[in-house]
Amino acid sequence: MKKAILICTCSFACPSLKEINFGELAERVRLELPHDYMLLHPRLCEANGEALLADLVKKDGVVYLTAACKPEKQWKLFRDGFQKAGVEMNEKVVKPVWIQFKNTDQAFEEIKKALEELGK
Ligand code: SF4
Fold first, then answer.
1. How is 31-95 classified by DSSP, letter by letter?
2. What pLDDT digit, counting tens, does each position of 105-114 carry?
3. Mutate which of 5, 12, 22, 45 for ligand 1 pocket (most atoms within 8 A of beta carbon)
């Protein structure tokens, strides 16, 4: 399975993500963590993000690690985008990671941990 990392930056404006330097996070992830590709989007839960998911998400062979708000929220917010891609959003294809209220190092560690769990 390929591993795709989708990072939602919440418009770079959400107070709950203000301690994350997304440029630094993305570059560290790119250089230090095993994955196939990564994408940053400012608002994955809105129409433009949903359109991206609908076009991007593949039916087979990829697991998506989504780094964004609370996993409970992610299951609801991303469901339609996955559905439009013809993919049922479930634990087999999506691994939500909660990066709110974390700094850059902590967000990196959360993504790293989730990738390790996917590798098991
Ligand atoms: S998916 Fe979550 S983190 Fe991303 S823009 Fe929507 S509310 Fe913010």
1. HHS--SEEEEES-TTSHHHHHHHHHH--SSSEEEEEEES-HHHHHHHTHHHHHHTT---STTTEE
2. 999 999 999 9
3. 45
